[in-house]
Amino acid sequence: MPDTDTGAPPRTLLVVAAVLVVALAVAVAVIGLTGRDSGDEKGPLALVPVDAPEATSPACAKLIPAMPAELNSKGTPLPRREIAEPAPEATIAWGSPDSIVLRCGLGKPPELTQTSPLRVVSGVQWLPVEGPGASTWYVVDRPVYVALTVPDTSGTGPLQQISDTIAATLDPVPLRF
Q1: Per the UniProt record, which residue ranges are transmembrane (predicted)?
Q2: Which of 2-11, 39-48, 153-162, 165-174 is predicted with the least confidence, judged by mean pLDDT?
Q3: pLDDT tens, position by position, 13-56
């Protein structure tokens, strides 16, 4: 019943309504925090397509099936992850939520020059390119360019495993500047 002096609803009704609004807001916040989807870790990984003119090459067709089903990152096994359609050709990912992504058949990285600092891992020459939160390592001494993007938290295990697979699968070629 309205207050006879002001026409406002009774104070009890206002308090009950305010409590219900606060309870609803708390419930929504709790559900949002506990059920929050942080990149749909269990679903397919969405990747942006990149120019990969050699993705359908015989070298990529040989390399991709040779890649391990699981990578080791600081003692933690990272299984292969499904890539969302339309999946880029000659691309594989491992782990979640911070995935490691390998792309085969890319064009020459613009950072590759005669003075680029290269690193050799298991006989494979890599060009590291640092980025925010992750580094991309380019294989520069095989018939195709391969990029491995690794989160900064992953350690060196994945790079070692991929190097071993590349060394066993693709023969080295002279650097192309």
Answers
A1: 12-33
A2: 2-11
A3: 555 544 444 443 333 333 233 333 334 457 899 999 999 999 99
pLDDT score at 12: 74
Rounded to the nearest 5 degrees, what angle is found at the Cα of 159, between the Cα atoms of 155 and 160?
Answer: 100
What is the H or E stretch that residue 119 is in?
strand 119-121
Residue extents of the structural domains in the chain: 1-36, 58-169
Helix, strand, coil distribution of the chain in percent, nearest 5: 25, 25, 50
* Buried/exposed 58-97: b ≥16 CB within 10 Å, e otherwise: ebbeebbeebbeebbbeeeebebbebeeebbebbbbbbbe
- The structure's pTM equals 0.77
108, 94, 102, 106: which is closest to 148 by C-alpha? 102
